[in-house]
Design goal:
alpha+beta; Alpha-Beta Plaits; 2 domains; four-stranded antiparallel sheet
């Protein structure tokens, strides 16, 4: 049986000097890295990177209500609990601007009904657990605490995109440097760096996770909110010439 044809080779480095231009070149003195390389000697490489970032914010909703025959009694019952919730959050370092209160007051048949919802945004998930545990312990069934919703701020998402691009460029430079060392050459300055592809996605894909959002654990919720990003770049570097022996030993 005939052997399969070998895959075509991919040429990604050009070490043969290009044809000299018609004009007379200006002589350049040799630096520490050896004599200057002839024009046109370049190495073309591509590199990629993939990074992930967990959510940096969590939003928790606390709902409470009261139904009384007197309007003042219904309002007072809710107000006392609202003050306790706000005080508990502030004592644990949550700024006032990260708490939003919505109130609804209505009359139902012969009684007054007041409902309120407090939305608290946490940047420290440990503090979030402390506050939720305290409210559950002290207020019990008089409040309903929703499961935390984890998400990324726009600043955190932008940081992830920037970091994955920089990591891809760094990997590309390392690859070009190793190629040059393989041939005893020194890597020069970058001539071109182009971002070719970026991808972003999120969510945990493990099959063992429950499909019901209410049954997810805290760690599973964080995993589901983790953001991923990948980047691929293409770069062209100059080949300076012979690699300095001293730098090679270092």
């Amino acid at each position: 049986m005939a052997l399969p044809a070998p895959p075509p080779a991919r040429v990604f480095a050009e070490l043969i000097p290009a044809q000299a231009p018609t004009s007379v070149p200006i002589p350049v003195s040799a630096g520490r890295g050896g004599p200057p390389a002839p024009p046109g000697r370049e190495v073309h490489v591509s590199g990629s990177a993939e990074l992930s970032a967990g959510p940096d914010r969590a939003r928790v909703s606390v709902r409470l209500g009261s139904r009384k025959e007197a309007a003042g009694a219904a309002r007072s019952s809710v107000t006392r609990r609202l003050e306790y919730i706000a005080q508990s959050a502030r004592q644990r370092g949550v700024p006032a601007e990260d708490m939003t209160v919505m109130e609804d007051f209505s009359r139902v048949e012969n009684a007054y009904h007041m409902e309120a919802e407090v939305c608290i945004v946490f940047s420290d998930f440990g503090k979030m657990q402390d506050v939720c545990n305290l409210l559950t312990e002290k207020l019990g069934t008089s409040v309903t605490i929703s499961p935390p919703h984890f998400y990324h701020t726009p600043e955190a998402a932008a940081t992830l995109r920037r970091q994955v691009c920089v990591a891809a460029v760094g990997n590309t430079r390392c690859k070009a440097q190793e190629v040059c060392r393989l041939f005893g050459q020194a890597l020069g300055k970058p001539l071109l760096i182009r971002e070719e592809e970026t991808k972003e996605w999120g969510g945990h894909l493990d099959s063992h996770l429950s499909t019901s959002p209410e049954s997810l654990t805290l760690q599973e919720r964080i995993q589901n909110a983790t953001a991923y990003a990948s980047c691929r770049v293409f770069a062209v570097f100059e080949i300076k010439g012979k690699e300095n022996r001293r730098n090679k030993l270092l």
